[in-house]
Amino acid sequence: MRLYPKVIPNIAREIVARLMQDGDIEVEPLRIADAEMDFVAIMREYLAGEERVNKAAREALERRGYDQSKFGQLKREMADVRGFKTGDEGIEYIIEQMIEFLLISRNVEEVFSEDNVLRKKIFELMKKHLRVDDDIDREARVRLRHLQEGTPSFEVEYSKVVDQLRRSRGLI
After folding, report:
1. Which of the chain's termini has less CB crowding within 10 Å, N or C?
2. pTM for the full predicted model
3. CB of 5 within 8 A of CB of 123?
């Protein structure tokens, strides 16, 4: 699952709206936008941390003279060293931050639901937006079914189609 910067405001808006609608939280109407911005800040801070890990991995790749195929391994190493959560653990970390925010925020009047209820609802909403890469992958493979997977021509065309689909969906 990947968190795209362009969908962050939509995720925040949906989370606040759903939690208010379901009666999990109470937010004054004048503070709804501020509450959404707090969620946006949490997700953007996570992305900034991920970018720092990526940068460290790219530098290590260059220092050690490795090719690009080792990037994932080095990224995991750099994340572990920094105590940074990635992948599904990263999403869980973001959700924990959001729940903590709900409990201390001046923009949220009251929290009525238990953490596990909030966690489940927030995860469902995030999953809807974060699974977009799976949808794009499936659509790209359908469009390229005339090419044999694993061939150089498939890889080149796959990259082009994925970029095109991400652009058309406003992700990049």
Report:
1. C
2. 0.80
3. no
Rounded distance between C-alpha atoms, residue 161 and residue 87, angstroms: 24
pLDDT in tens, 109-165: 999 999 999 999 999 998 888 887 778 888 888 888 888 887 888 888 888 888 888
Residue matched to tokens 């994932």: 72
Two tokens at 7?
């969908």
CA–CA distance from 85 to each of 16, 47, 76, 89, 98 (Å)? Answer: 24, 11, 9, 5, 15
| Separation between Cα atoms, residue 60 and residue 49, nearest integer Å | 17
The span from the first CA to the last CA of the chain, in angstroms, equals 16
CB atoms within 10 A of CB 35: 25
Q: Taking the CA atoms of 104, 105, 110 and 112 in sequence, report the sign of the dihedral they define.
A: negative
How would you classify residue 87: left for phi > 0, otherwise alpha for psi between -120 and 50, otherwise beta? left
